[in-house]
Design brief:
alpha+beta; four-stranded mixed β-sheet; two-stranded antiparallel ribbon; 6% strand; globular
């Protein structure tokens, strides 16, 4: 098989697996599942720039959607990014093993399967972390780019640095993805290139670093979140076993059904057995293989330690005393760093499996048919115990349609003032969104800033958010305060979402004294007269944040273009 044809086969296989996973999203509608909120259009508010009261956790993701969604429907954008990310994760793992191990197509398919078909992908899909999966997808490409930078001769250096810049920028769609890529890239890039690589990474994460540096009024994260978001032990596995099997997300509801049965143990044992068969070969490949294996071990052990009493104490101290340390509280997501090493080990195991378990052909090497048989066996071992990852993780991921009242509410908001929402709280259960709780779509679908407390209830913990003004507004609204009180707090609009449960308190007293501008079966919108403008950010802060976003997107596009032209 020619090289180009082989690559086409691998690329097609990755596309097939991706479509099997996200098949239901091919229909019309929007992704609305737990933390995933896609809307027809979003707006470039202060919150989208990372300048709201909450920590900038969705920067530059929200700004990117706000800029592009007037041209391309926001639901299509989110689904396209997710599909491309999953495909890139699988194909990147295949390219990684081809270049590191000179792996044939069957071994590449095993690596691609492991990268795509694992509990980490399933659980993050169910949690709605589509943009985190973009950072996950960038990891094998970051490995390849960092090694190229270290080894490149003068004529190839521009292409190598462009590839690393593209990997950092693509992973930088969210702060966590940026950190994942930085750990991998900076560990492999080599001592001589370390300083410029750090500088390049800092440029790639300019949006969220700028938002953090500007302060934006955000308070430190609640230390209670450290225990709430710690890695979780799955049945029959314990915390360490769950993490080693690429599972263990903090939310026990965002897991496939198979992970609540003995199949979780079976899947983990089979995965680790395949990986273990290839460890020796990867270690023998030298510095890069050993570095990736060490990173994998650390990425599993540290989150497990972080779930112990003393680990929780350390995490709480960091969250209170170190700005931005709230990014570290969901420790299980850093298990993603094990994926490149796992993919290499699985491919190496497939290669050696032909020698260990299959009879040899006349020339003393496994035949193509025999190698394919080993690969098919390994692929089955990876897929079958987690079969419910297929078709939207058991059809949990399916597109929804927003009632027409949302578009009408958007049109009615034609004046200044922030938006307060009822019922209280951040999560909703709409009749059209399924049984899982979903983040309130109001902040991403309305043109004005929406005040949210950021308060979460996770595994019995009440985790306070950073939105102090939002908390004051919500308390006043639930207490039935007069509209003038809300106006003094900068509120110009009150949106009542009628079809979701939640606390309403005595808000009817407030609503009775305000102007109803829109009502239907799903929503009611009220105008609060003469709100006092309380901008979260100054014009200078907005200009700086906008410049940081432009720097990020310029780096991404320039790096991708340069990489493409250099390859051609």
């Amino acid at each position: 098989m020619s090289s180009s044809r082989a690559r086409a086969w691998v690329a097609g296989y990755c596309a097939l697996l991706t479509l099997i996973i996200v098949g239901p999203l091919a229909g019309s509608g929007y992704l609305l599942l737990r933390d995933a909120v896609s809307t027809p259009r979003s707006y470039l508010t202060d919150s989208a720039l990372g300048l709201g009261a909450a920590a900038p956790r969705a920067v530059p993701q929200d700004a990117l959607l706000a800029v592009l969604s007037p041209v391309i429907d926001g639901g299509i954008l989110v689904k396209a990014i997710l599909i491309v990310a999953l495909w890139a994760a699988g194909y990147g793992a295949a390219v990684l093993v081809r270049r590191f191990l000179d792996a044939a197509v069957p071994a590449q398919l095993v690596a691609a399967t492991l990268a795509l078909w694992n509990p980490f992908v399933a659980e993050r899909l169910l949690q709605g972390h589509w943009s985190l999966l973009a950072g996950y997808a960038a990891l094998p490409w970051t490995v390849l780019a960092a090694v190229r930078v270290r080894r490149a001769l003068a004529p190839e250096r521009l292409g190598a640095w462009a590839a690393l810049a593209a990997s950092f920028a693509a992973a930088g769609l969210t702060p966590t993805g940026s950190l994942l890529a930085a750990i991998i890239g900076l560990a492999l890039v080599g001592r001589r290139a370390l300083v410029p690589a750090i500088a390049l990474w800092l440029v790639s994460c300019a949006p969220w670093l700028t938002a953090t540096a500007l302060g934006s009024g955000a308070e430190p994260s609640d230390p209670a979140g450290v225990a709430a978001f710690a890695a979780r032990a799955e049945p029959w596995l314990g915390t360490l076993g769950s993490l080693a099997g690429l599972g263990g997300i903090w939310n026990g509801e965002a897991v496939p059904a198979s992970r609540t049965t003995p199949l979780a143990l079976v899947a983990t044992v089979l995965l680790l057995a395949i990986v273990a068969l290839g460890v020796r070969a990867v270690w023998a490949r030298g510095r890069d293989g050993r570095t990736l294996l060490i990173i994998a071990v650390v990425a599993i052990v540290l989150p497990a330690l972080g779930a112990t009493p003393w680990g929780l104490a350390v995490g709480e101290w960091l969250v209170v005393h170190v700005p931005g340390a709230g990014l570290l509280r969901d420790t299980q997501k850093y298990v993603a760093l094990a994926m490149p090493a796992y993919a290499l080990c699985a491919a190496a195991a497939c290669q050696s499996g032909g020698r260990w378990f299959i009879r040899r052909s006349a020339d003393g090497q496994p035949s193509k048919d025999e190698s394919s048989l080993v690969a098919a066996f390994f692929i089955a071992l990876l897929i079958l115990p987690l079969a419910d990852l297929a078709w939207g993780v058991g059809n949990e991921m399916r597109p929804v349609r927003y009632p027409g009242g949302w578009a009408q509410a958007v049109e009615k908001i034609d004046g200044p003032g922030d938006v307060a929402v009822l019922p209280g709280g951040m999560f909703r259960r709409f009749p059209y969104s399924g049984t899982a709780p979903v983040l309130d779509p109001a902040p991403r679908i309305l043109p004005n800033d929406v005040l949210q407390t950021g308060e979460l209830r996770v595994r019995g913990y009440a985790v306070n958010g950073e939105g102090n003004r939002a908390r004051t507004v919500e308390e006043a609204l639930l207490a039935g305060a007069p509209p003038t009180t809300l106006a003094d707090l900068g509120v110009g609009w009150i949106l009542v979402e009628r079809t979701t449960p939640g606390p309403l308190g005595d808000a009817e007293k407030t609503l009775a004294a305000t102007q109803l501008v829109h009502t239907d079966d799903d929503l009611a919108l009220y105008r609060v007269p003469t709100p006092t403008l309380r901008d979260t950010a100054t014009p200078t802060q907005r200009h700086l944040s906008t410049a940081a976003h432009l720097l990020w997107v310029t780096l991404l596009l320039t790096a991708l273009l340069t990489t493409t032209l250099r390859r051609r």
